[in-house]
Sequence to fold (223 residues):
Amino acid sequence: MQYKVVKKSVGPTGKMDVLLTAAPKRVIEKYINVVKNAGLRPVALETESASLARALVAPTDPISIVVSLGALSTELIVASLGNVLFTRSIATGGTTLTRAIMAEFNLPQNQAEEYKQTYGILEDKLSGKVAAVLKPILDIIVSEITKAVEFVHTHVAEAQVARVIVTGGGAYMPGLAEFLVERTSLEVALGDPWQLFQKVGKITELAGQGSFYAVATGLALRT
Fold:
């Protein structure tokens, strides 16, 4: 278990906001064993949400919701002033979308994945048939984003969510940003953890792919 003071009280209540992070020891031990077996020395271990907040939300940025679309799940992180305020894991990810396409069009997994990456949720592609399959699933994520916005309105005085940052492999799905703007009425941006980096060497070969490496980048920036 670890904790971080997010905000100290300036009023008479003496209360403060504290971020508490906990993980089962057996899970931590598995990760540490993997690192050691690879011949490396573990230096730090932290949650995905903390790394994403550090990589994508600067201390001077307004309150943002990071939506990390992974293969098996989607992580929602509300971040403010560089700190994590709220997190939620949704059991809906890229694999769920691919399987829906497989079932609807009777396609093998590799072809269904290609449909998802090519047509996404664009209404003008394949007569919007793929979009019609994917939108009800993505609405689950939209519902959780709405709840996160309500959390901010309830728990953070005089504050509003300014934007949604999408990251992870699923963030590149065609039409996703426009869909989220339509459903949430919030600004939506593709997360780029390398936006302020001086790019030299190997990283120049990965232009536009920073979102794939947001978690790793955030962990590397840990001080």
In short: The chain has a mean pLDDT of 91. The chain has two domains: 1-45, 48-220.
